[in-house]
C-alpha cells in the first residue's frame, strides 16, 4: 500500500515552527517510503481563513523544500461534507442540540462544582418533537453532535467503551468514550468544525497515516468511531510532542510566535530551521542537517519525547552558523549579487568571510570592512605607529595575492623582531579596524594595494 500522508493547516495565520514540525514529520515519513504528501487547507471557517495566508503557507513550505503532491481546499468540497452529515443523520448518529454556549458553560460549571466530569449528558435526546419546534420558534438554531457508541442501546446510560490504537509515536493508546462529550460536528450557523470534513477527506483521499501533535490524542479516540460510522478505514495515527517557547508558552498562528515567515525574514537558513524543528525532542544530538533526504534518516518516531520540547533561539543560531559556514558560493551567489561587490571578486569574498558570518546577510558587514571607508578606532601607541610605518614601506611589490600576507609578515618578523599578536594585531586593526575577523591572507587581495597603503597611513 502506498503511504499517503497529509498536512492540514487552517489558513488563519502564519504557520510557526511547531506547525512545521508536523509538516516535516509527515513529509519525511511519506517520502522515505516512496509515498505521497498532500497539503490540505482546512478553510471551512470563512470568517478567519484567507487565501493570502494559504499562499504564504505554501511559500513557507516551499522555502523549506516541501512540495506537495496534491493541494486540497476544503472550501471546494462542502457538498461532500453535506452528504456525510445527511448520512449520519439518517443513521441517527448526528442529533440536534439547542443549548446556547452560555447554557452549556453553566452546565459544565455545575457538574464541576459537584465533582463530576464536565461531560454533555445528552439532554437534547430527551426533547420531544414539539419541544424542538418550540425552541426553533424562539429563534434558536441547533448545533449538531455525533452520538458516540458508548452505550448498549439507551444513549442516556453510558458505559465504559474503549477505543484502542497502536500509536506510531506513543505506542498502545486507549481512550474511554464514556469519559467524553459527544463532539459537535456542525455549528448553529451551519458551518462545519474541522472534525467531519477532516475525516471525510482523509477517507476519500486514502490517507494511510496521520502524524500530528499530541494535543489530538483524545480527538483520535472520538474520530475513529466516526470513520467507522461513515464506512471509512481509519488511518494509523502518531502523536508527536509539541514545541513551546523557551519560557514554556505554547505557539500560536494568531500571535505569529516563531512563524516561518519571521524566521526567514530574520535571515535564517531553511535547513537550520528544518533541522531544529525535526530533531528537537528526539534522541541524539541536534545537528545541522543540510538535506531533507538526510534528515529523513534521522527520524525515528518511536524516539520522539513524550514531553514538550522548548525552542531555544541560541540553538537555532548555532545550527544556522554551522550551515552558513559550509555554504558554497553557488548557494549564495544570488544573494551576494545584491551587494556592491565587483563581480570577479564575489566568490573569493564569500570564501574569505563565510566563517565569520552567522547569517548570509552578515556578509554586508564584511563588504563594508573590505570595500568601504574604515571608521577610525583607538589611536595606536608610538611603538605600533612606528611598526605600521615600517609595514607600509615593506609591503611586497607586485600583485597582492594569497601569498602576499605570508611573505609580508615573514619579512616584518625579521625586520622588527615582532611575532605573534604583537605582529599581527596592529596590522589587523589598521587594515580592518577590528581586532577579529577573516584571515587576512584572504582579505588582502580583496582590499587591494591602494586601500592597504591608504589604511596604513600612506
From TrEMBL:
GO terms for cellular component: cytoplasm. GO terms for molecular function: ATP binding; glutamate-tRNA ligase activity; tRNA binding. One of its GO terms (biological process) is glutamyl-tRNA aminoacylation. It catalyses: tRNA(Glu) + L-glutamate + ATP = L-glutamyl-tRNA(Glu) + AMP + diphosphate. It is found in: Cytoplasm. Residues 6-317 form the Glutamyl/glutaminyl-tRNA synthetase class Ib catalytic domain. Its main location: cytoplasm. SUPFAM superfamilies: An anticodon-binding domain of class I aminoacyl-tRNA synthetases (SSF48163), Nucleotidylyl transferase (SSF52374). Its EC number is 6.1.1.17. It is an enzyme of class 6 (ligase). Keywords: Aminoacyl-tRNA synthetase, ATP-binding, Cytoplasm, Ligase, Nucleotide-binding, Protein biosynthesis. Monomer. HAMAP family: Glu_tRNA_synth_type1 (MF_00022). This is Glutamate--tRNA ligase. It comes from Fulvimarina pelagi HTCC2506.
